[in-house]
Amino acid sequence: MPTLVVRHIPNSDPPQFQVERASDSKASKAYEVPTPFGYPVQDRPDGLMAELQWYLEQFLNYPYHPETEHAERVLTSLKSWGEAAFCALFDARDSGGFFDEAIKDGYHNLQLRVISDDPKVQAWPWEALRDPKADCLAHACQVERRMDS
To answer: Which pLDDT value is given to residue 96?
Structure first.
């Protein structure tokens, strides 16, 4: 099973990541990935992570209008962040080649491993990574988180 490692560069601000092939540890250069904490949600003052917390913890207490519209805006922003993060990581020539090689037999064979010692980075909704040409990666591949140390 091909494994791609998304390794957080410690103390990078804004957050940067390298993509590595687990098979030979060959790595891309570092790429900036937008943080979901400040990622905008239409007509909402807080970033995506605060709105996602609302969606997961409170929306089902009152899943009616106008909160359904609020929820749709959160999901639209989550999808947008997933595509932006995917493109930041895999659109480049070096890391994109890793990705294309890893999915040559289909997404179901891919394992995506996010490595970071930063709890905020570990909390990012990595399962929302979305290939604009396909769908949400977590629907077809394995996504896992690990500490670096």
So the answer is: 80
